Amino acid sequence: MKSSNREEIIEHNAKELFDIVLDIESYPYFIPWCSAMKVHSKSDSEIYADMIVWYKYFMPQKFGSHVEFDKKKLNIRTTYIEGPLKDLKTSWIFKSIKKNQTLITFNVEFEFKRFFHQKIAEAFFPLIENKMIESFKERADEILN
User: Fold this and answer.
1) Does residue 71 carry a pLDDT above 90?
2) Partners of 38 in beta bridges
3) What gap in Å lies between CA 115 and CA 107, rounded to an integer?
4) In terms of Cα–Cα distance, which of 50, 51, 46 is closest to 71?
5) Cα torsion through 15, 16, 21, 23, rounded to 10
6) All domains of the chain, ordered by start, with CATH?
7) Is the pTM of this model over 0.85?
8) What pLDDT does residue 57 have?
9) How many whole angstroms separate alpha carbon 130 and alpha carbon 79?
10) Which of 6, 75, 84, 99 lies 20 to 30 Å (CA to CA) from residue 122?
11) Measured at the alpha carbon of residue 24, what is the angle toward residues 112 and 92, in degrees to the nearest 5?
C-alpha cells in the first residue's frame, strides 16, 4: 500500500479551511479530475458519497466513500467503500497556529486492485498529490481573500 503524510502551513483560518475541504459538493468546480460528486446521505458527522473521476485517457471511475468528520476537533477521515481500488484512506487535520494561520496535515494510503494500475499511480502520485493540495489552496485563496 502506498502512503504519504504531508504538512502545510496555510495563511487562512483553520475552521474556514476545514469547511472548504468538507464542501465535497463543490469539488467538481476546483479539482481538475473530479467531474461529479453524488452525496447519498449527510449528517452532522458523516457523509456517504461517490466521486466520479475522469482522467484524460481513462474511462470515468466511481469512488464510493464514507467521510467522517468532527467540527470541534477539525478533522476529516475518509474510508473507501467501492471502486477501482483495493483500499483508500485519507485524513485531514487542521490545527490553528495563529488567527489566520493553519497547519494542515494530510495523510493518504491507497492500493489499486491491479498491480499495473498501482505502479502507474505510484509513479504519478507526487504530481497528483501536489495538484490536489494546490487546488485546495487556490480555492481557499479565491473564497477567503
Assistant:
1) yes
2) 50
3) 22
4) 46
5) 110
6) 2-144 (3.30.530.20)
7) yes
8) 64
9) 21
10) 75
11) 65
